[in-house]
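RETRY 2/3 - previous attempt timed out on the joint model. Re-submitting the same 946-residue input unchanged.
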Amino acid sequence: MELTPDLRDCFTVPGKLALPYTYFAGRIGSRFLLALQEEHRILGVRCAGCATVLVPPRATCDRCQADLADTWVEVGPAGRVENFTVVRYADRHVPEPVPLVLALIRLDGADTPLVHRLGGMDPEAVRVGLRVTAVFAAEPRDTLLCIDHFRPLAPQPSAAGPRPQGG
Amino acid sequence: MARRVGICAVAQTTWERDKWSQRFQGMALEVLEDLLARTGLTFSEDGGIGMSISVSDDIFDARTISDNAMTDVLGAHMGCEEKVAQEGLQALYYGLAAIRSGHVDVVLVLGHCKESQPASRNQVTHMAFDPFYTRPVGLDFTAAAGLQAQAYAARAGVGDRHLAQVVVRARQLATRNLKITGLPVVTAAEVLASPLLADPLRELHAYPVSDGAVGLILAAEERAREITDRPVWIAGVGNCMDSFFLGDRDLASNFPLRQAAARAYRRAGIDHPQNAFDVVELSDQYAYQQPMWMEGLGLVPAGGGGAWIDAGGPEAARVNLSGGMLAGNPLILGGLVRAAEAALQLRGEAGDHQVPGARRALAHGVMGPAGQFHTVAVLERD
Amino acid sequence: MKKNRNVGIVGVGQSVYSSHREEVNQPEMIHEAVVEALEMAGITMAEVDCVVHGNMELFEMVHQPDLWHTLGTGAWGKESLRVTTGGTTGATLAAAADHLVASGLHDVVLAIGFEKLQEGHTTGGITNMADPLWGRQLQTGALTGMTAAQMIEEFGAERAKAAAMAYRILMDANAMKNPKAHRRLGLRPDQAEELAANSPALVGELRMIHMCSQSDGACAMIFASEEKARQLCAQPAWIEDHVTAHREEMFCLFGNAPVLTTHRHCARKLFARNGIRDPRREIDLFEMYDPSAWWGLDWLREFLLLEGDEHLRMVESGAIAMDGDFPVNPSGGVIASNPIGATAMVRVAEAALQIMGRAGGHQLPRPVRRALASGFGGTMWTVLFLLASDTERQAAA
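RETRY 2/3 succeeded.
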């Protein structure tokens, strides 16, 4: 086999996958999204078997298979940053602006944290343990982005703090 | 007692940033012809390849049912072809099951991926997230890995300096792997200065985008001994699925990998994995995963990842002498290439990175955000 | 070929098949099928060792959807495998589950096929099957008028069209007995002419009424080792054998030479391997993947290794009806319900239900000892299953 193939006259052809999709949130998801949209309330579900309040809500506990319909519990809107990363690359699917802080936020009253974006502060100043609260979108949206982002409960210094380090 | 299954031959293309002059069928054909030449097999119904298992992903291929583009390459004219649409090490698991069941004697496993084809790898993995809760915030596997790295690093004492060491070593080893082309060596200073992607992940911590194909021939013991004088036995395979939502998991706990490893070890009859392997090939898509997966495999004490690197653990444990995923294999083929590399070691065909006398090896694959799903395979020679 | 150990089907679950499942998301819909299958098998997820999952990514545009679907599949903490082969996916999943149990790796495997076609664009998704350089501009989804044209040429327009419509109306009569079926139209034989005249033409003589639906739905099946199956189920459906055959993407590679169909190829191989000489007499039921009335009609000849017009006569005489000599698709078949990633599994599942005596309103009036089930997909690919009851296996032994 030739190690350096002759690449003259090799074509590349641009293509695009563009198809429309409409996803159904289901009854449980819809209830959650409506509560966000219309009442600015955040709902979780409680698994009695696991003694756990789960956010986002789901119809079934994936650990014990319990049916979680009608086990609504109100959580948040404040919570604690359990973990975070700062996404520093721009891409079509990454909400602007970058750097984007994605944090695992455990809402008050919930056991499982939720991934959402943090705003209203310098990305370099985010740290685990920070108290934050939901900022709801002014206009109705169809997804979790009914909560536009979370912001610190207490005013934060705008200057850059120490950069997060990997240990 | 079900019959033993052996790997009889291994082939792979080079792994390059952009094989723009080749379609994926062409890459796969290169591997197929190599495998047939090595084994003398055909697709004859009488003793030939009885089943082809392809590995690919419709979204990476930008084609619905992308294996329909592969039937002629896979010899599936009136023959059996099935596609494992998951991380490629799962094809080994499936081939093992199909042969042990008695249904078929010889199986071709052939995976391909062109990560260079989509606009970005992150756009593809973004589509693994649900449309309501996790897509809208922009998650992809890189961001999820950032969250996991953050959780793990603190718990295991793994810092930026350790991660730089992992990358420097991988790039250095890659120069000895003839299948890796065009990947420069780097210094620790270069890794430390490389831009952050998703804290604490840096650009140089991430596996390079690559194109290529890899294949194996599997056969029942009797046939395997006819095909090759150096069969590599699949002694045990195990896998495990974790919860989907990142917040439902303890991201640093290694839960699914510990389960997958325990299952593979049990099937292979291994009670003490710590010193069981001459070679370990694991799927380190990001630098932090090398120590983390070693902990999950039970080969490094839990929380001891940083100390393990300080003590020269990767070299001592002969981890990823091929360069690993950090030297560049596509997402969905990582584990299958690891199995191929492990088999090459056990067959004494690993060239410049051969471990003399290697008898038992571990291969590992991972899929999903922050390692939601893991597969572990234990391979042995006579 | 000796199977390492026997595998029985002990549970089947199906969501309702419909084009209106707005009230459930993907994992929730899957969970409906899983719950039903577990209930029929009398087990919980704790007793399941491995979950096998399959569908087509581009129909919903979810990458590696088994990851998200863990919320409904029960796969958490379990072993898992994801296999896809286009339209045959569901049957391939059944084959995979059979291998996983027969191999001794697992005692109990749950296999799940699903599709939520209403969330995507089916014809657009299928068109993306075609080669982007050579075929995509010409592809018309899965719609083809070729079979109708060939049958009209062979048997004359009047007879061919009447037989296709008779097949369609018989399938609807069956679907009316199956509450899970998607399209249950209540067609009457005396409507045949009116339907033939008024149903919109899609391609040539393939009309809307002939074509399968686009459905949302999930099917789940539980496979168990012989030992486990006997504990769980009075009458498991045993997997005797299955054969898979694919063909190249470019059909016309060899010019106009007549090509052996994968259906006939699989049938010959399956019957030879299992000592079946007269399939119509030795098999009690056929659940066929019939994407349109034309294909269903035409393929009877292929699967049953018939010649001439025998397959037309089977339809014209009503032999394929539920009370006929050789019932085909008592479930209503694919024309009635088509959640693509599940569709081929539904064929195996429905055949199993008939053997288990659990098919409910569309249970055949006489016992089913041996059943055939087919999957179809890709570029004319086939998976063909043979299932048997205890009675059949004892008789064979």
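Chain C touches chain B through 64 residues (CB under 8 Å). Closing ticket.
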